[in-house]
Write a structure and sequence with these properties.
The chain is built from 25 helices and 19 strands. By secondary structure, the protein is of the alpha+beta class. The strands form 5 sheets. It has a 6-stranded mixed beta sheet with strand order 16-15-14-19-17-18, sandwiched between helices. Strands 4-5-3-6 form a 4-stranded antiparallel beta sheet, sandwiched between helices. Strands 8-7-12-13 form a 4-stranded parallel beta sheet, sandwiched between helices.
Length: 598
């Protein structure tokens, strides 16, 4: 008997079937991803979006309830251009259908057609030849088929042919696709999704889905010669919760920050996608609209380099506590994992979506002092999965495990890949800030010299005890607010006008190394310490980092250039997370000795 109505269970299992088809084809979709940028992640993004939706929702016979749940989950799980467009399409469909229990297949086809404009409205500058085109032409064909039959199988089979044809035509609408000899990856993913649904409609057998293979539509695989131009480096996404969010206002105000702007969702919750060179300004601006529940920032330039312009066979990974200038990170193609920073209910990514000057601007005004947390395990696993596809081995250098759970996350993420034979080493630096930065720089230099993986790890472990940091703290205030010092000790330090020097012990725990009563005597103490180290164990390299104290940092440069007979490797702002405890005005010298003790 022909199926002539759609309820909640039908739509859930349809999404499940489509999700399985997209997931099976994830790597293929990554390979043909060339628009809007060559970042090879459309398959990953669509698979994540759909899987998050079906994993977050339980089957329910009520059509409106099921679609509403899928729509809400889509905003949390949506990733990438195509994923967020799909989320807006599902939200539009849920809005058009409302709270009904079920619809006739003919009515459902009409609602599908009415939901397509939502997807177009989500995109700041809609482009034909993408998933939007295929979605529109499929919906039109489905509606037309629904006028001729109420048999869902016949409707789907008929409209699927139109979707496939529209997919094959995408290169004729987009020059970048024609030049690359591929169809649009997002559109191909959508067709895979439809093929999964059509197969379910035909067989009714969920268990067979995983064993069935969908067809791959591609003109020719020849991406090796294709090179992309990335005008905006960071693919940024935010899940924003607010009150009466005006999508048009958001679009007008966010467009100046970059391109590929997509806004999906409702008046209470939206997912925003943007390609930008200044993710910190973009996210900081969003705070005025509400709480940022999620953030994701992908460095498309680094992703492109890994695939097409990789310098070495060993990948180098560190966390954002390592203070290094961006030009050095770029020079050595270092992969940076940001620590999470919580500010009044909004989540930020250290050094990526929030910069030091922004954290300084709010430290003295926020009612609740910001806190930090280790990077999510899945974030690190995703990075390692990508790196293991393109590198022979990976070296990961974490902030001291006595200061953060980041080392544990790195180790846990690496374990699954190590068990599969991947060569991944996780090093507990027992350091932080500029000292950790010097160790990472040393690793990068050894990799560039062509040294073997195992020898590099051995040399780095040997150099850790010879790497030190000495921080001149301007005030106890921030250490007290951050919970690293009791209010009583903070008050005592203020009364006595103490200017502490903070360092790390051999295990990487924070210690009060020395105290002075003025900044001048504080500097003299650090100078004396460095001079003694130089005499006993010559300094090979050093750097100076600071928290909004550039003039003090430059004076340190002059002082220690005279003491050590060489200029610092670099002067840099400290991580916003390090600034939470060190506080505004802090300055530090980090140095790595040669290990050749006098």
């Amino acid at each position: 008997m022909a199926q002539t109505y759609i309820n909640g269970e039908h739509i859930y299992f349809a999404f499940l079937a489509g999700t399985k088809e997209v997931t099976k084809s994830r790597e293929f979709l990554n390979r043909i991803n060339v628009f809007p940028v060559f970042d090879s992640d459309t398959g990953n993004n669509l698979a994540h979006t759909f899987n998050y939706m079906v994993d977050s929702v339980k089957p329910n016979k009520l059509l409106g309830d099921t679609l509403s749940s899928l729509a809400d989950a889509s905003l949390s799980g949506a990733r990438g251009n195509s994923g967020i467009i799909m989320a807006q399409f599902v939200n539009g469909l849920a809005r058009e259908i409302g709270e009904v229990k079920q619809l006739s297949t003919r009515e459902f086809a009409q609602k599908i057609s009415q939901a397509v404009p939502y997807a177009y409205e989500a995109v700041s500058r809609p482009v034909e030849g993408t998933v939007l085109t295929v979605m529109r032409e499929w919906a039109e064909a489905l509606k037309k088929a629904g006028e001729e039959t109420e048999d869902i199988f016949k409707m789907f089979l008929s409209s699927l042919g139109d979707a496939r044809q529209a997919l094959q035509e995408t290169p004729n609408k987009l020059k970048v696709l024609k030049d690359a000899l591929v169809v649009d990856a997002g559109a191909q993913g959508f067709v895979f999704f439809l093929e999964g649904i059509a197969r379910l409609v035909e067989t009714g057998n969920i268990k067979e889905l995983a064993r069935q293979k969908g067809g791959e539509v591609v003109i020719e695989e020849s991406l090796d010669e294709v090179r992309g131009e990335i005008n905006f480096r960071y693919c940024s996404e935010a899940l924003l919760k607010g009150n009466k969010l005006d999508h048009a206002e958001l679009r007008n105000n966010l467009e100046p920050f970059g391109d590929s702007l997509i806004i999906a969702g409702t008046e209470e919750k939206v997912k925003i996608h943007l390609h930008t060179n200044k993710p910190d300004e973009f996210f900081f601006y969003l705070m005025r609209y509400g709480k940022i529940l999620q953030q994701k920032v992908d460095d498309m330039q680094r992703q492109y380099q890994v695939v097409h312009e990789r310098k070495n066979d060993i990948a180098l990974v560190t966390d954002s506590i390592a203070d290094l200038p961006l030009e050095m990170i770029d020079k050595y193609q270092i992969h940076l994992v940001p620590i999470n920073l919580e500010i009044e209910g909004s989540t930020f990514l250290d050094k990526i979506s929030i910069k030091p000057d922004q954290i300084y601007s709010i430290l003295d005004t926020v009612a609740e002092y910001p806190t930090s947390s280790q990077p999510p395990l899945k974030t690190v696993e995703k990075l390692l999965s990508f790196l293991c596809e393109h590198y022979k081995s990976v070296i990961m250098i974490s902030v001291s495990k006595e200061l953060s759970g980041t080392w544990n996350v790195f180790s846990q993420a690496a374990k699954a890949f190590q068990e599969k034979g991947k060569n991944i080493s996780v090093i507990n630096s027992r350091l932080n800030s500029g000292a950790q930065g010097l160790l990472v720089q040393k690793a990068a230099m050894l990799i560039e010299e062509g040294m073997e993986h195992g020898e590099i790890v051995k040399k780095l472990e040997e150099r850790i005890p010879d790497t030190r940091i000495f921080v001149s703290v301007a005030t106890f205030k921030y250490m007290v607010r951050g919970g690293r010092l009791s209010p009583m000790k903070g008050l005592l330090g203020k009364v006595l006008n103490l200017k502490p020097i903070v360092s790390l012990d051999e295990e990487g725990r924070g210690i009060s190394f020395a105290k002075a009563f003025t900044r001048r005597s504080n500097t003299k103490k650090i100078r004396s310490i460095v001079k003694e180290i130089q005499e006993n164990n010559p300094v090979e390299s050093y750097c100076i980092v600071h928290a909004g104290a550039k003039e003090k940092a430059l004076s340190y440069k002059d002082i220690f250039t005279r003491v050590l007979g060489k200029e610092p490797e670099y002067i840099a702002e400290i991580s916003p997370i390090v600034a939470l405890s060190a506080g505004i005005g802090a300055v530090a010298i980090s140095l790595m000795s040669s290990g050749e003790k006098s």
